[in-house]
Write a structure and sequence with these properties.
5 strands; 2 helices; TATA-Binding Protein; 5-stranded mixed β-sheet; 99 residues; alpha+beta
């Protein structure tokens, strides 16, 4: 799969993680020059504000590198469901290295 198609699929799927919840809002952040994308959560937990990163992914040539994924529904599964070949997905947070 070519890089522009990978990027479009990646952004489509990341946008699904950026949403408003009961006590939290998730935002899609990006640095287009570096082709890195993150979903940041801001929440109120027991009356206190909390912020954290739930998902980080980047494009590296014709591969998607998932650096962090703290979601029950993992990004890798969404990408595979969109027919992104497994050999174009690197799960860095699980210790996979780019070959």
């Amino acid at each position: 799969m070519d890089t522009p198609t990978l990027k479009q699929i990646l952004l489509d799927e990341l946008r699904k993680y950026a949403k408003r919840g009961l006590n939290a809002t998730s935002y899609l952040m990006h640095n287009e020059a570096e082709q890195i994308y993150a979903v940041v959560d801001i929440a109120m937990i027991r009356g206190k504000r909390s912020a954290g990163t739930a998902l980080i992914a980047r494009l590296a040539g014709e591969r998607i590198v998932i650096e962090l994924d703290r979601n029950d529904k993992e990004l890798v599964d969404a990408l595979k469901a969109r027919d992104v070949p497994a050999d174009q997905i690197i799960l860095a947070y699980r210790g996979e290295l780019m070959g």
